[in-house]
Amino acid sequence: MAQMTDDDVIRRFYDAVADETAEVWYASDLLLCTIRDFLRLLPDRPDVLDLGCGTGHEAKRLHALGAAVTGIDFSPRSIAIARERTPECVFLEMDFFDLDPSISTYDGIFAAGSLIHLSPVRLQAAVACAAAVLREDGIFLAVLQVGEENRAEYPEIDGERIERVVYRHAKEFVLDCFSRAGLGFVRDAPLAQELAESGWRAYYFQKVSGSTAPARAP
């Protein structure tokens, strides 16, 4: 049997916890203040890409507040739940690195907790891919873990322990990463105190007019 890649491990983890995740997060409004603030920066009835949408819980809130939402995730089970529970949005089983502006572009990108499993090199590549589908002057909201050290977790999936790495990046690195993709830092975004105390931060970036930063393979 071929050895699983890091992506395979993460996909397996989120497939296994998708049902539990849906039950918890469809009932939670922890990100509601962040979502409301995000939408104030976008045009009316914006087209929003939910990058790493999971089971569609935040896509549902974005849509309820006026956005037309497309969610992508590489977890088949998560996408199945999202389609069942939030049929008013479009959900695609897709990797970040498969984004293509010839398919569609967006006024805003919402990435809540979906960038934490990307190493520095892969984070840069994923941001470049996402920037390519963001319209001029569009807004990218990134909710991610900030810090100097990564954290490894060892959940048990189907009787087997797997390693799930959470990457924490310094704010300076994150800002530089987005800048290299043609996305200028705007400001910090509001975040529920419970999330902030757990090491989460939320940042707004805006696509610089005329930026043609190329997407790069991971």
UniProtKB/TrEMBL annotation:
InterPro entries attached to this UniProt entry: Methyltransf_25 (IPR041698), SAM-dependent_MTases_sf (IPR029063)
Domain of life: Archaea
GO biological process terms, semicolon-separated: methylation
CDD domains per the UniProt record, alphabetical: AdoMet_MTases
Span of domain Methyltransferase: 48-138
Keywords on record: Methyltransferase, Transferase
Ranges in coiled-coil conformation: none
GO molecular function annotation: methyltransferase activity
Protein name (record): Methyltransferase domain-containing protein
Lineage, top ranks: Archaea, Methanobacteriati, Methanobacteriota, Stenosarchaea group, Methanomicrobia
